[in-house]
Amino acid sequence: MSRRCHSVSAAAPAGVFKIRTVTQGILIAALCCLLAACAGQQVYRSDHRANLFITTDTETPGLFYDIDASLDIYRMHDICDVEYRGTVDLDDPLIGVGIPEGVPAYLVFRIRHSAFLTNTQSYLGYDLALYPEHGQVYDVNVVYRDNIYDIEVEERPRGGSEGERLAVGMVERACMTENI
Question: How far apart are CA 24 and CA 30, in angstroms?
Fold first, then answer.
């Protein structure tokens, strides 16, 4: 003869438990994504006087879109030997950054575009090599509108208003994909 045990408890209905479990799962997943996104990124810190001024002009196509821009800064020892120095979030319209003069820098501008309703994200990257000269400042204009972006760099003497637009192109970096 088999015995069946029945217990009586004041447990919550199954639907309440399911909702709480799903909510906890979503919160844990969101926290993990946030930690993973920040794990490899360090904030760029410099004791150098600001000589790189970035103006960011991004325009979202609507209410349910988001655009983030950032700048990854590398010290360039050689075209195939770069050292990550940190990331600058370009969340203000104008940001000044100090990069060492006389030391080649490898700059990677990243633009993230996301649409909430379709749950899509896209990333754009633009990289350039810059050799900051003593006494010079560099004005960078980053524009993103209508899914098109443009980056312009101008070199001018510190304290001067007139500068020279630099011809910038993407760096051929077949050997650099392992370092970045």
Answer: 10
Residue type, 127: D
pLDDT above 90 (res 20): no
Query: Position 9: which residue type?
Result: S
| CB-based contact 59:113 (threshold 8 Å) | no
Between 163 and 171, the more confident residue is 163
The residue length of the chain stands at 180
- Give the span between the Cα atoms of 81 and 129, in whole angstroms: 12
Please give the helix or strand (H or E) that residue 35 lies within, else none: helix 14-39
C-alpha span between 36 and 33 (Å, rounded): 5
Please say whether the dihedral angle defined by the alpha carbons of residues 16, 18, 24 and 30, taken in this order, is positive or negative.
negative
Is residue 127 within 8 Å of residue 170, measured between CB atoms? Answer: yes
